[in-house]
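FIELD: query
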Amino acid sequence: MTPPTPAGVHALAFDVFGTVVDWRSSIIREGRRLGDARHLQVDWARLADSWRAGYGPAMDRVRKGEMPWTNIDRLHHMILDRLLEEFGVRGLSDEDKDQFNRAWHRLTPWPDAVAGLTRLRRRFLLATLSNGNVALLVNMAKHAGLPWDCILSAELARRYKPDPEVYRMAAELLGLRPEQVMMVAAHKGDLRAAAAVGLRTAFVTRPLEFGPDRKPDLAPDPAFDVFATDFLDLAAKLGVR
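FIELD: result
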C-alpha cells in the first residue's frame, strides 16, 4: 500500500546538482568536446570530480567570511582556473574558459527527471532550492526543459545551504509555513538541515551521481518522510498518478 502524502504539503523544493541533473557525465562530455576542439589530452573524469570537490570548500570560505558573497558561477570559475593550472591545461582563451564554466548551465537531467517533475507538478508547486545562482538555474531549466513553477536560489538569501536561512527563505517566499514545503534531495545532509527548520523531507537515490566506482549512502533513513528511487517513484509515493 502506498503511504499517505505527508499532510498539508503544498510545494516541493528540489536540490538540483546531483538530484535533478547528472552533473558528472555532463561535465565530462563538455570537457571532451573542448578537448577535441583544442587538441587537449586531459583526464576529464578526474577534472570533473575535482571541480565538484572544490565546490564545498569554496562555499565554506564564503560562509566563514573569508570571502565576500560570491555566487556559484564565480566560485566555479575560480575553481576551474586553479584546476586548469593543476592539470597542465594551456592555451585556452578567456572565452574558452568562460564557455566551459557555463557547462554548469547546460547539465543533462537524469532520465526520469522531466517526466517525474511533470507528474508531480499536477499536484504540487515545484521550486528549485539550490546553491546554484539564479541565472545558472534559469538557463539550466531552459536548456533541459525542467518544468519549474519557481526558481529559488541560495543567492536570494546571500547564504549557502545548509544555512537554515536558505530553507526558511524558501517557505517565506512561497507564502507557506515550513511544514507545507517538502525538500527533495539525493543528499542526506541537505535533508537533515531542511528538517531542522521544519520542512518535510524526501530522499531520492542517485546511485551514479559520483560515477560507477563510488558508493554513496543510499540506505533509507526513518528521519525522512519519504524514500524514493527516482522522481517517478516519488510521484507514486506522493499519490500522483
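FIELD: remark
The mean pLDDT is 96.
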